[in-house]
Amino acid sequence: MRVARDAVTPVFAEGHTFEIGKAAVVRDGAGITLISTGVQTSRVVEAAELLAADGVDARVIHLATIKPLDEDALLQLIADEPHVITVEDHSRIGGLGGLLAEIVSERGTTRLTRIGLADHWSESAPNDFLLNKYGLSAAKVAEQIKAGLLAPVG
Q1: What is the distance between the alpha carbons of residues 41 and 17, in angstroms, rounded to a whole number?
Q2: Strands (DSSP E) along 92-128, which ranges?
Q3: d(CA 16, CA 8)
Q4: How far apart are CA 81 and CA 54, in angstroms?
Q5: Looking at the 3D structure of the chain, how many domains does it have?
Q6: Which residues lie below 8 Å from residue 115, measured CB to CB, with a gap of 6+?
Q7: What is the dihedral of CA 101, 77, 135, 139, to 10 degrees?
Q8: How far apart are CA 70 and CA 100, in angstroms?
């Protein structure tokens, strides 16, 4: 299930070649890393810009595919990150967040937060309404990240 297939701002220059299984850094930053896939990456880049205005410097990684995935290369990208956040317009179960939870729990040492749809039925509605309701608009993603960064770990 996907929430929306709305028009978004491209995150890659024209002519960019996607590589199956490879992660691509689309915005540099330090302190936290946001990982997304599909059209949600555009909203995540926008959320990173909103966070930057509040002094939070976030790197954004786009995964063109989640299966196959070059796990070793991705783990190298996030090896020194204290906090990784996945953001997907999909269920947190069985998608990008679930995959990263498996990888990080088995082979990583970073804190992982998953932003996505909870495990319940949703409804049909205009894109903007759904993105806001389910916390997937750029503004809602930025709010959740700021709230999580301020919350105590443990």
Answers
A1: 16
A2: 111-117
A3: 16
A4: 20
A5: 1
A6: 85, 86, 87, 88, 92, 97, 135, 136, 141, 144, 145
A7: 160
A8: 12
Determine the distance from the C-alpha atom of residue 48 to the mean position of all C-alpha atoms in its chain, rounded to a whole number: 10
Q: The tokens of 20 are what?
A: 């199956």
- Give the C-alpha separation, 104 to 133, whole Å: 28
Beta bridge partners, 113, equal 85
Examine residue 76 and state whether it is found in any structural domain, yes or no.
yes
Residue-wise pLDDT for 52-88, tens only, equals 999 999 999 999 998 999 999 999 999 888 889 999 9
Q: Which domain holds residue 111?
A: 23-150
Q: How far is CA 84 from CA 33, 45, 93, 148, in A?
A: 5, 15, 17, 11
On whether residue 90 sits in a domain, the answer given is yes
Q: Digits of tens for pLDDT over the chain (154 positions)?
A: 455 566 778 888 888 888 899 999 999 998 899 999 989 999 999 999 999 999 999 999 999 998 999 999 999 999 888 889 999 988 888 889 999 999 998 887 788 999 998 887 878 888 889 899 999 999 999 999 998 876 655 4
